[in-house]
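Weekly structure sync, notes
Attendees: PL (lead), two postdocs, one rotation student
Agenda item 3: pending single-chain targets
PL asked that the sequence for the first pending target be pasted directly into the notes so everyone works from the same version. It is reproduced below exactly as submitted, 106 residues in total.
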Amino acid sequence: DEREQELEALAAIFGEELENLSPDAFQIKVALQGGKSLMLLVSLPPEYPSRHPPLCEVQADWLSGEEESFILDHLGSMFVPGSVVVYEWAEWLREFVGEGRDYEPP
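Predicted structure, written out during the meeting:
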């Protein structure tokens, strides 16, 4: 099952940075440059990855509401039905947010 394979891969990649909250929910601490980090909270609906993306939330005390909205919109746009996406989300957060790239608010 793709979900199980993805969870096993995430556990291998993120190790202690990944914490299971329930069988279908977990959080990943994404380390960023400058000592910052953010939490990616993920909940997998029954239809993931076939039809629906994971539900997600990002938490960091330094994120503004506008930045958080931009991040969540972008993460949602990365999902392609039938494909797992959580690792790509974590990598994008590390690369884009971690480098402090500017974004254009809507």
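Discussion points:
- The two ends are 37 Å apart (CA to CA).
- The longest strand covers residues 25-31.
Action: rotation student to compare against the earlier draft before next sync.
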